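REVIEWER CHECKLIST
Item 1: Sequence provided? yes
Item 2: Single chain? yes
Item 3: Sequence as submitted:
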Amino acid sequence: PVVTASWKQPYVGNSDVLESVLEGYMTKPGGVERYARYASITQSSGTGKSRMVDELAKKVFCISMNLGSKNAYPPPDVAVQAWFQSLKVHRIDEWDRRVQVFIYVLFQTALKHAQTINSDKTKNPSQIASEFRSKMSEGMVYGRHGTYRQKFYDEVCTNANKVVFYSAQYGLHDKTQCSQSPIVNIQDETGDVSNVKDAAKALTDYLKSALPPKTVDKHSKPLVIVCFDEAQLLTDSSFFREVTPFPVVRRVLRIFRVLPIFALFLSTVAQLEQFPPPPPFDSSARVVRTVLRPFEPIVWTPLDVFAQRFTKTKAGKAWTLAEVASTHHIVHLGRPLFPAMYDAAGDDERLKNNVLRLAGNKLLYDHNPTPASMSKQQALACIAVRIPINFSAVQLSQPRNEEDVAAVERTLVANHMRLLLYAGAGFSPIITASASEPFLAEAAYLAMVQLRWSDGRAKEPADRAGLEPFTVFSHYLRESLLDLGPRGEIATALLLLYARDCATTFPLLNTELPPGAGS
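Item 4: Structure as written out by the authors:
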């Protein structure tokens, strides 16, 4: 209930930033031809990626498909998820035809629904988009979407399978060349022949016809957004036998790249460089030769949008130190996930306490927010949200693997709440940071204190061996690109952190309580 309630709270942020970025991508290619109109929105968990696109869908016609876990929110579109998973039982050389047919039917179905919404022909594209988004969102609860959205994607997947079967049964498909990307011509049961570009153009032409006549030539924003939320399924090489659907989807997007359609791939836990990969590792020869370049990833993140400002009350009362250090205040700093859930909990203290547990879960990438033991990666994640640590920027010179020293930094973003500040094309290079988020720091402290003190007893040194701050950093100095600072400032910060934890959570003797424990 809290998750659903937090999603339905009034949006706090600026979706106009995303709209401006997409308009810039469409109108200012920078003298470089782009492979297709798509980009990734990749950022760590809880930063409002899905909600930002959902807010933009009130103004731009957005066809959003969620391919994520059933334990996440928004919930997955089960029919679409199953459709893409079904690709693995077909020959790889059939994937292009099947994905083109799917997108073809997707646009046809979206056009039919847009025409129904605008049956009186009085609505402009933004009004059509807003009503379509409202219908696709109604009835959504944790674990499943509402009836309208379920029927929409059931219709898409059912018709896509029919078209694929019909064309295969009667041989009514023909591959031709369209701007160096193969395109499948599809003959339906009525004998009409069309393709995915025709379907895409029909949808955008319809929305364009709803624009005020004087603005048609000046309109430079996308009319349609195709969003793959939690898109890591499309790059899961282990699931798809080392070959993934993402390059196939991208080739389809290239077919209608001149139309006002933009595709977004939202991802948190995927291998970051897969949306898109660096040019040297791309599956397209034209991208490898840098003849065509992908768009840079979108990493913009709203922070402190729920923060309460330090202002005097009408009675002239100033904030007290206790109020500044209160959970209520610190939870409203940083990324929007935690304050949204905290506020949605209302007066239920149990649910509010669960928000802190959730912060620990997400920080450690573990079901237990205070585990009895933790890995060095988890320990580094805890340290990173308590003191500022940086990594040296590096261009990706080889595909990601376990020995890749840059993988440590990317894993902190994907699994442990570190933020992307900048990412070049193909995520090469990246600049990351752990923002000042006191609520996450509190979760990290509670996790680390369990390594020192439990049930009124000091833990043995062997129980925390290898997880002290200096030991963790010593390990990662050899295994990653950790930056100590020009004068070794990080060593001083580690020393202060270690001294603080010893003074507040670790007894000097086995028989001595930590300071404050007996008061």
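Item 5: Key structural point noted by reviewer: The first strand starts at residue 38 and ends at 42.
Item 6: Recommendation: ____
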